[in-house]
Amino acid sequence: MKNVGSTDRLIRIILGVALLILLAVGPTPIRFIGILSFVMIGTASTRVCPLYIPFKLNTDK
Question: CA-based diameter of the chain, in Å?
Fold first, then answer.
């Protein structure tokens, strides 16, 4: 069941790439935030956000 729409997906990809860059070049304390990039890119590629399911959110038309 897909629940991530195209606009939501694009935003997740952009944020995921930005956080991935932060992971690569950021100082050590900020690098932890970069791990979220894998979550953002993963949910964008599968088009399924587990946090949307309990709240019955769906951005896919």
Answer: 40
Q: Degrees (nearest 5) of the Cα angle 59, 31, 28?
A: 165
Rounded-to-integer distance, Cα 8 and Cα 17, Å = 14
Residue 1 DSSP class: -
- What are the residues whose beta carbons fall under 8 Å from the beta carbon of 24, sequence distance 6 or more? 34
Q: How far is CA 43 from CA 25, 26, 29, 36, 58, in A?
A: 23, 23, 24, 11, 13
Give the range of the structural domain holding residue 33, as residue numbers without chain letter.
Answer: 1-61
pTM confidence score: 0.85
Read off the pLDDT of residues 25-48 as tens digits, 9 standing for 90 and up: 877 777 777 778 999 999 999 999
Number of domains in the chain: 1
